[in-house]
Write a structure and sequence with these properties.
By secondary structure, the chain is mostly beta strands. It is built from no helices and 6 strands.
């Protein structure tokens, strides 16, 4: 019996979101509590913080021009926990969301 193996490509994929959308990578969740208790995956909260990977061109306005994006690649942000659409590229989990779903920039 033959077995098939998958080759994982190491090529970096470039994503360009459209309009007022952004792509971000969620920060890793805490695996231990302040008291040193190790939390299993099912008990860990998914953090609502992340780093922006790429941004779109801006929202299309009624007059045909585009609004300027307030966010830029590299910004650390806090976002609504149910916002966006999670997806995977390779072994990376990314989130695609609108700029309006971002609550604050961490400076």
């Amino acid at each position: 019996m033959a077995t098939a193996t998958k080759k994982k490509s190491k090529a970096k994929v470039s994503l360009q979101p459209l309009g007022d959308r952004i792509v971000l990578q969620r920060e890793a969740s805490e695996e231990t509590t302040a008291g040193g208790i190790v939390l299993p995956d099912s008990a860990q909260d998914r953090p609502a913080r992340g780093t922006i990977i790429s941004v779109g061109d801006g929202r299309l306005l009624d007059d045909g021009s585009r609004s300027e994006m307030q966010l830029k690649a590299g910004d650390r942000v806090i976002f609504s926990s149910y916002a966006g659409e999670p997806f995977e590229i390779g072994d990376e989990e990314l989130i695609l969301m609108r700029e309006d779903d971002v609550l604050a920039v961490i400076e």
